Amino acid sequence: GSRPVKKASLVALTDAAFDKDEGVRWQIKLSLHDLGCHNPELVLRTCLEFLVKHKQLVQGHRMAIISSMEAIVRDTVKQLSQTLGKNIISMASDEMTKSSEGAEVDKLKEEASNLLVAVGCRFSDEVLAEIQQKLQPGHLPQFHEVQTLGKLSVANVYGVVPHLPGILQTMTPMLSMARQDHMKMAFTSVLGLFAQSILEYLEHSDRAPNPVLKKSLFSQEMYACYKILFSGWLRNKDNKLRSAIVVSLSYMVHLIPDEKLEDELPKLISGILTLYKKRCEPFYVTRCIWHILDTGVHMTSQVLDSQIDNLLPPLHHQICSSECELGPWCPSITLWAPASSIWKARSLLSWPP
């Protein structure tokens, strides 16, 4: 067995976690992780007490300790008591939502967000309750609050998805309040992650603790969000944001009500195809078209036939493009089927999303 860990030794390690020598810092993180895997309660509680006691600790030092805690929690979350879990959640939430700003503070908030996600892999209800307290209707949430919800939904699908109907109802009206690109990016990313986790939940609902959830529980809010992203934000000149929107729409289209999507398909296909001519990553555009066709085929859409003439020229151009260097899932390979006939879109269904 391992030798008992003395608390004084842990405090000394925690105190030295921000040594000026990077090699020493790395060695201390490894030591804390090793000790934490043997005695997670003691090590995490010591780190927590150190952070609470030393409120004026420099950002880099706080970040080093929180990063060490996250690494320990990731490997030992099943061993944590609920009391310690709640205390870590409370501390990480406070760190993540501090009003101060700056590059160093952003890194600290990111580490706190990662710690919340790690704890949320087991204590998802508690993490969601903590964040939802801060999600007040009529008030724009902080970037990292939104980001944490998205990351947690993918990390703990079965724990989070049952809460998403309520979270989406609260969050959807907030989209119209987002004026700055970084908040639009946060909402765009979280919607894509929500859609991914919902689709995974629905696909494997037999394993879910609450298998009565249906697509219809999410579809109205997803449609409302889709309208804002597609009809509004996609016109943004920021290429990074446009690409993120295309990636998220790829998953969101599967959750739009069939009758609404049937009406939207011509406009949606046309709008996404035009992005080939703009500075938007063509791989993401092609993948989005694939998802749109996949959804249309599965719901036996009546309008896909009428889109052949719109689809063929840009897809043919992608096939012939000499710049296609995107690896094994190069779009030019995957576009052979729709270029032949829209109904051969069925053969595209084997292309990994």
From TrEMBL:
**Domain MROH2B-like HEAT-repeats, residue spans:** 257-322
Annotated PANTHER family: MAESTRO HEAT-LIKE REPEAT FAMILY MEMBER 1 (PTHR23120:SF0), MAESTRO-RELATED HEAT DOMAIN-CONTAINING (PTHR23120)
User: What cellular-component terms does GO give this entry?
Assistant: cytoplasm
Q: List the protein's name.
A: Maestro heat-like repeat-containing protein family member 1
**In what residue span(s) does the MROH2B-like N-terminal HEAT-repeats domain sit?**
32-253
Q: Which residues form the signal peptide?
A: none
- What does the record list as coiled-coil region(s)? none
